[in-house]
Amino acid sequence: MYVWRPLTHKRAPQVVLVCGPAHIHGLLLRSIAPHLSPETYVGTIFAQGGFDWIATDALGDRMANVKALFGLQNIPWICKMTTYGSEARILGPKVRRDGRRETP
Predict the structure, then answer these.
(1) Which DSSP string do the residues of 44-83 spell out, in sequence order?
(2) Rounded to an integer, what distance in angstroms lies between the CA atom of residue 65 and that of residue 82?
(3) Phi and psi torsions of 10, nearest 5°
(4) In a 3-state reduction of DSSP, which class is residue 42?
(5) Which of 4, 9, 27, 93 has most Cβ atoms within 10 angstroms of its Cβ?
(6) pLDDT tens digits, the chain, 104 residues: what are they?
(7) In the Cβ-directed half-sphere of 103, how many Cα atoms lie within 13 Å?
(8) What CATH number matches the domain at 15-102, 3.90.1150.30, 3.40.50.20, 3.40.50.1820, 3.40.50.720?
(9) pTM for the model
(10) Which sequence spans correspond to the domains of the chain?
């Protein structure tokens, strides 16, 4: 389930962290594009799947309003369902996170 809450703050966010699955990164980025400032960092917790290409396409001219793109290598955990709809078990939490930053 995805909940859409439009940004209502008067100031642009300093950091935008996209936490949705890779197939909706473009949709999420297009929805926040009007709210970015030249001081905004935009990144994702799951950078696999060409996040930099998706961001460049989704933000278009608004990429000028991004201080830097960043991404973590992969999700920090894996979960497995134990009881459908109500319970999951966390498998293999990672102790180290790798990331990358790119200045547009």
Answers:
(1) ES--TTTHHHHHHHHHGGGGGGEEEEEEESS-S-EEEEEE
(2) 43
(3) -75, -30
(4) strand
(5) 27
(6) 344 565 566 677 788 888 877 888 899 899 888 888 888 899 988 777 788 899 999 999 988 888 888 887 766 567 788 888 888 887 766 666 656 566 66
(7) 3
(8) 3.40.50.720
(9) 0.67
(10) 15-102
